[in-house]
UniProtKB/TrEMBL annotation:
CDD domains: GalT. Pfam families: GalP_UDP_tr_C (PF02744), GalP_UDP_transf (PF01087). Transmembrane segments: none annotated. The lineage of its organism: Bacteria, Bacillati, Actinomycetota, Actinomycetes, Bifidobacteriales. Its EC number is 2.7.7.12. Its cofactor is Zn(2+). Gene3D superfamilies: HIT-like. This is Galactose-1-phosphate uridylyltransferase. Belongs to the galactose-1-phosphate uridylyltransferase type 1 family. Residues 81-247 form the Galactose-1-phosphate uridyl transferase N-terminal domain.
């Protein structure tokens, strides 16, 4: 019997595994007890070959995720689907998900749970409401139990109006929210993961982008990572998320407006030309390898900010070829390590940097996608070893940014931490 990963790989309709993934990553889908999608992504050879298999049965006794419930008076109450309302002043859609108030929080002073729902199942552990059916894993992806957006079967996504007033549009927030756990070590840091594990994470981003792009009603796919208590993470575990919006988020909408205007004016690609301008200036480029360039943008907002762009024109993560996926894993690993060393705490060890890593990729249906370009925007709120940049009146009230440093100083510090050329 042929037990190669390629022969065992569960077929997906739109995802095309890279050459490496065909042989070295195995994706196994299952369904959690309440009906949510769950996927194991294994890079352990014993699981890739089929010699060992994962636990597919979720032992929890959970109600169907969209089931109605009885209120205090015994009346049946339907599932409360998240809704979103449109701000007439900005055109922004604002999702509202009251169920998230009940999600477990295990990090920071507001912790409400002692167990970790992202950890592998521990036989005999008193906390038995974990999301992973098996007692170990490599990388897993699953639908969020407390989503900000979700598509509820049989519920219309048509526009309605708050109080019947056409000024206030309202729709169900019919998107999708997924969690990606990078590693089973719940006390580990993404910066400490081997490049091979981050390569599996990159494949997870590509896998979910390819599949979710074909779900009706989804307009934008946003993989991202929140890390650190200062950022506001509720679960201390190396993980990220994928938000799939039924609209184009305000940040991307603004970028699309500018990239389209630039194309109409010059015939060029703004994101490509920005990368090229940084390469020509040289001063703010902090890393390069065969496929990627990392630089501090000349108008950086954050006290630590790095943009990462592919050398080749690529619209979305799933379009990356095998070499680009490997090179991305290498660059991301190096970026995280240097980010942790950026601020000197006096002992030469740096710190666990709080950061957000935000993937900006082309929207799914909008025609302006052709003039966009994949890019990662990595930034931190921290402005010194013992200081946080707070978004006060100008930033929060008017979105008018005031920087506490300069892009050149940020780049200079990165240059002190290691070479620009990181090709192995």
């Amino acid at each position: 019997m042929n037990n190669s990963a390629e022969s065992q790989q569960t077929p997906f309709v739109y995802y095309q595994p890279s050459a490496y993934a065909k042989e070295h990553i195995r994706i196994t889908p299952t369904t959690l007890a309440d009906g949510r999608d769950f996927f194991y992504l294994d890079d352990d050879p014993a699981y890739v070959s089929g010699e060992r298999t994962r636990e597919l049965t979720d032992p929890r006794q959970l109600d169907y995720r969209f089931a109605s419930h009885l209120d205090a008076d015994g009346h049946e109450v339907p599932y409360a689907a998240p809704q979103m309302r449109r701000d007439p002043l900005t055109g922004d859609w604002i999702p509202m998900a009251t169920a998230r108030m009940n999600r477990p929080i295990t990090a920071g002073p507001g912790a409400t749970a002692t167990g970790n729902p992202l950890a592998a199942r521990k036989p005999g552990d008193p906390y038995q409401d974990g999301e992973v059916p098996d007692t170990d894993y490599n990388v897993v992806v699953f639908e969020n139990r407390f989503p900000s957006m979700v598509q509820v079967p049989g519920v219309s996504a048509d526009v309605q109006y708050v109080d019947g007033n056409p000024l206030w549009e309202r729709r169900n927030a019919a998107g999708r929210c997924e969690v990606i756990c990078f590693d089973p070590n719940e006390h580990g840091l993404p910066a400490d993961l081997p490049v091979e594990r981050l390569r599996t994470v990159v494949e997870a981003w590509a896998f979910r982008t390819a599949e979710i792009s074909h779900i009706e009603g989804i307009e934008q796919i946003f993989p991202f990572e929140n890390h650190g208590a200062e950022i506001g993470v509720s679960l201390a575990h190396p993980h990220g998320q994928v938000y799939c919006y039924p609209f184009i988020a305000p940040k991307l909408e603004t970028e699309l407006q500018h990239t389209e205007q630039y194309f109409e004016r010059t015939g060029g690609n703004l994101l490509k030309d920005l990368m090229q301008s940084e390469l020509e200036a040289q001063e703010r480029v902090v890393m390069r390898n065969h496929s990627w360039v990392a630089y501090v943008p000349a108008a950086a907002r954050w006290p630590l900010e790095v943009h990462v762009a592919p050398v080749r024109d690529v619209l979305t993560i799933d379009e990356l070829d095998d070499q680009e996926r490997w090179d991305l894993a290498q660059m991301y690993s190096t970026l995280l390590k240097r980010g942790n060393a950026f601020f000197d705490t006096g002992d030469g060890k740096g710190m666990d940097l709080p950061y957000i890593a935000a993937w900006h990729q082309a929207p799914i249906h909008d025609a302006r996608r052709e003039h966009y370009r994949l890019n990662l925007q990595f930034f931190s709120f921290r402005r010194a070893a013992n200081k946080i940049k707070y978004l006060a009146g100008s930033e929060s009230g008017m979105a008018a940014w005031i920087s506490d440093t300069t892009p050149e100083l940020i780049a200079k510090r990165f240059h002190e931490l290691g070479p620009i050329d990181i090709d192995a």
